[in-house]
Design goal:
The protein is α/β, with parallel strands linked by helices. The protein is 39% helix and 18% strand. It contains 11 helices and 14 strands. The protein has helices spanning 3-27, 59-74, 90-101, 115-124, 149-163, 178-192, 211-223, 237-244, 273-284, 313-328, 355-359; strands at residues 44-49, 78-83, 106-109, 129-133, 142-147, 168-173, 199-204, 228-231, 248-253, 264-270, 292-295, 302-305, 338-339, 345-347. The strands form 3 sheets. A 6-stranded parallel beta sheet has the order 2-1-3-4-5-11, with helices on both faces. Residues 1-27 have low confidence and may be disordered.
Length: 376
């Protein structure tokens, strides 16, 4: 074989190799296009406005507990903030407007006196959801939610009627509005359902949260012979005053058993979690509607909790029977005949009061002493 032929053979092999490599490159699949970046979904920003401190163990505490529980359920889909100790009046409007300016898309205002401020701000911000606890004014982007607190007051009354030795109950009241008057009357009716001799005395303090005033009012009631107390105020002061005096009382808004275990007969406790989960869910699902929600024992928004271990068995049975009746609808707190403390019939026999009737209560039922103060 000549060198010339060998060179030609080698050259041919090189050309053939190059051709095959070129063909292989042509057959390679083209690279996949880069994936488009996933758009980040911004969380729902929600703000809460509290009339008292979150550490009050009462009203604001229970709302804040509901906020935390609901936040835990929705994870990174929701972020929340809150402002505590906001006075009712012009300051409330300023705070609510500031929260909207911070980018919050839902604002929960948790006291009756925030109502007018919510109406004003809601009108100016139709793209924001507004939720008002215990009010009655609504708009396309403003709705109301409320606990049927009077059901819990009625259950406390059943226990009080059984436990009183003097047949005189005491009630420390905040403001003379239907919400509070319902609770005073329900407490009295619950007690009278097991003890017709019961009478109730009331002291008004014109504040939701003022421990010194609450203590003073409780002491005044006990000095007048009251041996079982309930309050529509937000601290533990009434319960603690009762324990110092060897009397009985109830927790209000949350479980207060740890603060005065010797005096504590049970607590009327709120569970706002069920509502805040409903609200967040509806906003995220875009099914939110401007409605009025009023939930009670049946829906799990409130309950009579931590009944004292020392309660007699007949007392435990009486309150449990009433509780189950509220759940099933066989017990109605306001069912006629209902008579006010002047002797006037305000609800006819066998008539069950509707929400309009309960929302307009401006009287004491028979057995409550004194007159309802005029105005707030």
């Amino acid at each position: 074989m000549t060198r010339s032929f060998t060179r030609k053979l080698a050259l041919g092999a090189i050309v053939l190799g190059a051709t095959l490599a070129a063909c292989a490159k042509k057959e390679e699949a083209p690279p996949a296009p880069a994936a488009a970046p996933v758009a980040k979904v911004e969380p729902l920003k929600a703000a809460f406005v509290y009339v008292g401190p979150v550490g009050d163990s009462g009203w604001s505490f229970s709302h804040d507990l509901g906020r935390k529980n609901a936040l835990a359920k929705f994870g990174d889909k929701v972020t929340t903030t809150f402002v505590e100790k906001v006075p009712e009046g012009p300051d409330a409007e300023r705070v609510i407007r500031d929260l909207v300016a911070q980018g919050n898309k839902v604002v929960f205002a948790t006291s009756f006196g925030f109502m007018d401020a919510m109406v004003k701000v809601a009108k100016d911000h139709p793209d924001v959801y507004f939720e008002h606890a215990t009010g009655y004014k609504t708009a396309d982007n403003l709705r109301v939610y409320e606990a049927r607190f009077y059901e819990g007051a009625y259950l406390a009354g059943v226990v009080a009627g059984k436990m009183t030795k003097t047949n005189t109950l005491g009630f420390v009241a905040s403001f003379p509005i239907p919400e509070v008057l319902r609770n005073i009357n329900a407490f009295t009716l619950g007690a009278q359902s097991v003890n017709p001799k019961v009478k109730t005395r009331v002291v008004w303090i014109n504040s939701w949260f003022d421990p010194p005033k609450e203590t003073e009012a409780a002491q005044s009631l006990m000095n007048q012979g009251a041996d079982v107390l309930l309050q529509n105020t937000d601290s533990t002061a009434v319960l603690q005053a009762a324990e110092r005096n060897g009397k009985f009382a109830f927790g209000w808004d949350s479980d207060m058993s740890a603060f005065a275990p010797k005096a504590h007969l049970g607590s009327v406790a709120l569970n706002w979690t069920v509502y805040y989960e409903k609200s967040f869910g509806e906003i995220l699902e875009k099914s939110w509607k401007p409605e009025v929600t009023k939930w009670g024992v049946k829906e799990g928004m409130l309950d009579f909790v931590k009944p004292a271990a020392f309660l007699p068995e007949d007392t435990k049975k009486a309150v449990e029977t009433a509780r189950e009746g509220l759940k099933t609808g066989t017990v109605a707190v306001f069912k006629g005949p209902v008579v006010d403390n002047t002797g006037k019939e305000v609800l006819a026999k066998d008539v069950v009061a509707d929400d309009a009737w309960k929302g307009a209560i401006n009287f004491y039922v028979k057995g409550v002493e004194g007159k309802v103060p005029s105005g707030k």
